Amino acid sequence: MTRTASEQVVIVGGGFGGLMAARSLRRTPVRVTLVDRRNFHLFQPLLYQVATGGLSPGDIASPLRHVLKYQKNATVLLAEVTGFDLEKRNVLLRGGERLDFDYLIVAAGVSHDYFGHDGWGRIAPGLKSVEDAIDIRTRIFLAFEKAERAVDSEEQEELLTFVVVGGGPTGVELAGALGEIARETLRHDFRRINPGDARILLVEGASRILTSYPELLSRKAQRSLERLGVTVLTNTLVTSVNERSVDIKAGDNIRSVPAQTVLWAAGVRGSGLGGILVGNGRSGMDRAGRVLVNPDLSLPDFPGVFVIGDLAVVNNPGSKPLPGVAPVAMQQGRYVARVIDRTVRRKSPPAPFRYRNYGSMATIGRAAAVADFGWLRLSGYPAWLAWLFVHLMKLVEFENRVLVFIQWAWNYVTKNRGARLITSEHRSSDR
Questions:
Q1: 48 belongs to a structural domain
Q2: How far apart are CA 421 and CA 53, in angstroms?
Q3: Cβ(203)–Cβ(238) under 8 Å?
Q4: What 3-state class would DSSP assign to 151?
Q5: Which of 319, 344, 369 is the last residue of a domain?
Q6: Which of 27, 118, 237, 378 could join 383 via S-S bond, C-beta 3.0 to 4.6 A?
């Protein structure tokens, strides 16, 4: 006998994990409500290209209602979650509305972590949202515009110095794109300055960049960055950030670097919803603000409540935290949907979640990337082609794939970045 869809699943967050969970429940006899304060799914791995003028926001975003329009058991709500009452099984929304649930999936993601220096956020933006990307894009291209007008050589040096903090994939991709902008995209656009004179520093506290990659690929990535004019500073920490300089420390040596554009890619912290969720039970959090969950990704003491994606870390002393990448969130979303499906159908639960790592990639610039598939390690042009193909295929909508492919092909031929617009308030006032 066919079960009626009487049980309610509420999913908080329309990112990779939340959207995958919703789509994976399409044949399960439940009602799915996906709640997000944005009306679109954002393909974050390409967000740095919006921040550097290579793509427009619409190229990497898909309206959630459009993505789920043919899934009859799914409803999308544009709303902000403000709390949870896990005992009464409901989600609190801004404005006082409550959503009842039988199963809850929290996939709220992470925000920037400035390691106790939250005041740096105003000066050194991170890259997690469309607004962040547009802000960074404005700061980058406005710096060159201001340098063109500057008459003081010291001010010009400050404006043409860019500091990227964090040598993970995001920092490497940002630094590489900045090198291309300075030496190729803007090469003939100015009359009083030479954009190629821009100084780009990538600051990493560890002994090498891309620490999650094999050392050989890490070294190749650094060489690719250096060919683009990026200076890589390893074993170096940022100790202070202000509007005109950055203090960095290498060993016992501290020096000040004049720079008006600082970009943050050094750390992340769990969404504030994680803390609200933990307050309802005896679950804990790790130092990065991620929620400790059971091996089946459920919240301790609350069966049917799951946390997935960047916000979750499995409470297992013998295991390492999983990387905060899209494949982890997607596999977790698919897994939790399976747990719910089997529970609803009165079947035995699946084995504990196990992440299958199919590889990781980072692009460094034009025709340069690194890729680690475990059994195969690539760098240079082959890795770049693999990176292009994988990222195109992972875009949610076919239309986005076509648009991004055309834009990439045009950018490759012309070395241009067609979305280098200065659109915010920064255009008319100094920071």
A1: no
A2: 7
A3: yes
A4: coil
A5: 344
A6: 378
Closest CA to 12 of 112, 109, 132: 109
Q: Which of 369, 403, 365 is nearest to 386 (CA)?
A: 369
* Nearest to 102, CA basis, from 3, 17, 36, 2: 3
Our answer to whether residue 204 is catalytic in this structure is: no
- Give the residue from 344, 378, 402 where a domain finishes: 344
Task: Spot the catalytic one: 131, 158, 173, 184.
Answer: 173
Of 208, 251, 255, nearest to 233 (Cα)?
208
The CA–CA distances, whole Å, from 311 to 272, 332, 394 equal 10, 11, 21
Q: Distance between CA 145 and CA 140 in Å, rounded?
A: 9
Please, which residues have CB within 8 angstroms of residue 423's CB and are 6 or more apart in sequence? 134, 138
Residue 275 burial (CB count, 10 A):
12
Q: Is the pLDDT of residue 431 over 50?
A: no
Asked whether residue 71 is assigned to any structural domain, the reply reads no
Rounded to two decimals, the pTM is 0.91
Residue 377 has φ and ψ, to the nearest 5°, of -125, 125
- Return the pLDDT at 29: 95
Q: Which residues contact 61 (CB under 8 A, 6 or more apart)?
A: 40, 41, 42, 43, 130, 400
Kindly state whether residue 57 falls inside one of the protein's structural domains. no
Our measurement of the distance from residue 28's CA atom to the centroid of its chain's CA atoms, rounded to an integer in Å, reads 30
Tell me, yes or no, whether 205 and 235 share the same domain.
yes
Residue 372 to residue 354: CA distance in whole angstroms: 19
Please give the structure tokens belonging to residue 389.
Answer: 């193909």
DSSP state of 59: G
d(CA 417, CA 146) in angstroms, rounded, equals 19
Q: What is the DSSP letter of 396?
A: S
State the CATH number of the domain containing residue 384: 3.50.50.100
Could you tell me if residue 139 is inside a domain?
yes
The pLDDT tens digits for 211-266 are 999 999 999 999 999 999 999 999 999 999 999 999 999 999 999 999 999 999 99
CA distance 303 to 39: 29
Pairing, β 237-242 against β 245-250: antiparallel
Q: How many domains does the chain have?
A: 2
Residue 304, H or E segment: strand 302-307
Query: What domain range is 273 assigned to?
Result: 7-37+79-112+269-344
